[in-house]
Amino acid sequence: MKIVTYNLRYNYQNDGVNSFLHRAGLILDTIAEENPDILCLQEATDKNVAFLRKHLSPDYTVLLTQREAGLTGEGLAVAYRRDKFSLYGLEVLWLSPTPYVPATRFPGQSRHARICQKLLFKNEETGNVFKLYNLHLDECSEDVRAQQIELALGWYAAETVPTILLGDFNSVPTQKVCALCQNQGLTDLTEDIPVTFHRFGTKNPGSKIDYIFTDPATAAHSRGVRIWDQCVNGIYLSDHYPIEWTCDL
Known about the structure:
alpha+beta; Deoxyribonuclease I, Chain A; six-stranded mixed β-sheet; globular; 14 strands; single chain
């Protein structure tokens, strides 16, 4: 089974040759070539998700959850192969002191709300049940990111099935967010990946801010982790490298 976390990059017009319009073909070609089973997306919008729904293989279902008031704006999405997996639950929580109130934030947070997608899947080939937490943490304040991950870790601790915590954490490995995950006893499956954020190849040497964490028992099912670093004529999949985890869950 292949699970991928991928910051898709919002469709900014000033991205030039790497605007979504120009990246779209490479994105579709790469997904078709790599054939992931579950694709967890950050910086998803109604427009780029509509594109994926129209052009991805019909085997995929794509679910978008948006973070702002009125359930609009940027958000998170998951694309999964419905021929292989059954979705038994999708819960959307705001990473704030009031997780069930849309668009709420922690004090000191950026103007953007942040959410968590909690998804319960059954692998119909193996019969295994597992959960995915798809996250995108605050981009401005490490203290806020720490509060957000502590909230998610509290939910994680109550899970009774194998659970994977992944996404764009906006934190480098030496910062508080990763320490909190490790203090919870989670395994960083991306430990050997040095760079995920590269700003379309212009950030040298780049930094690592995207992760896949899980408990040691689930990590034992790992068959490898790699980035998607495709680049054609200066066009990248995103300003982040997607991370693929292969496992036998």
